[in-house]
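Design request, tokens follow.
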């Protein structure tokens, strides 16, 4: 995976099974976000295959990949600040299938994030940081994805809000959602994930069960502290 001639990720072998929650952790600049962007079609891989349910999706446009059931909740939120909460949510239901189920999906995301129902007529710029992140995640859910990819969802949030956000991820997983998480808080990510990958300098250097990686001496020393 590369930006032009500058290669960022090499020999990546990543597997996310249906119904799993998987984390990718590692330092800034390791290639974590690039990996998610490649899966969603924003950065075409220079070689190899990306598959969804056995179907190769390399080279497909991002909107086509979203139709097939993958959604990326990006880092730094990227909401439309002058639009209302409801308008931002409705933008997430852009595929024909999502539009047909929009009403049911809205009720579902309001159950997961009740504060958004209270704020539905407010503009996105009036929300707190935690509410903005909830709206970003909810907008991604409006497409009813099979695979939900989350890029640094805890960025800039207080610890209490991080716990609330991760509780919503647990609920989504319990409801059958497949989740691929990139997260700066390594201990939180690996405690949440069933499996994890440690990415350094564009290569996977460790992989295994989340709890197993959390006990790994190198990871604890380099990323957890202790």
């Amino acid at each position: 995976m590369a930006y032009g001639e500058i290669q960022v990720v090499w020999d990546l072998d990543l597997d996310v099974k249906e119904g799993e929650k998987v984390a990718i952790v590692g330092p800034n600049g390791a290639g974590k976000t690039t990996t998610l962007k490649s899966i969603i079609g924003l950065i075409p891989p220079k070689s190899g295959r990306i598959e969804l349910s056995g179907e190769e999706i390399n080279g497909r446009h991002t909107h086509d990949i979203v139709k097939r059931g993958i959604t990326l909740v990006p880092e730094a939120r990227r909401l439309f600040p002058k639009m209302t909460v409801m308008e931002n949510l409705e933008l997430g239901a852009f595929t024909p299938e999502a539009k047909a189920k929009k009403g049911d999906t809205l009720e579902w995301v309001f159950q997961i994030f009740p504060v958004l129902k209270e704020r539905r007529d407010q503009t996105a710029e009036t929300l707190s940081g935690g509410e903005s992140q909830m709206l970003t995640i909810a907008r991604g859910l409006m497409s009813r994805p099979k695979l939900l990819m989350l890029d640094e969802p805890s960025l800039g949030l207080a610890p209490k809000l991080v716990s609330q956000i991760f509780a919503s991820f647990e609920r989504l997983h319990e409801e059958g959602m497949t989740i691929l998480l990139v997260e700066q808080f390594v201990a939180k990510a690996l405690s949440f994930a069933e499996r994890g990958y440690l990415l350094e300098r564009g290569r996977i250097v460790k992989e295994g069960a989340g709890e197993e990686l959390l006990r790994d001496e190198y990871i604890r020393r380099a990323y957890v502290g202790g």
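Comment from the thread starter after seeing the answer: thanks! The beta strands are 2-3, 6-7, 21-25, 51-52, 55-56, 70-73, 147-151, 178-182, 195-200, 203-209.
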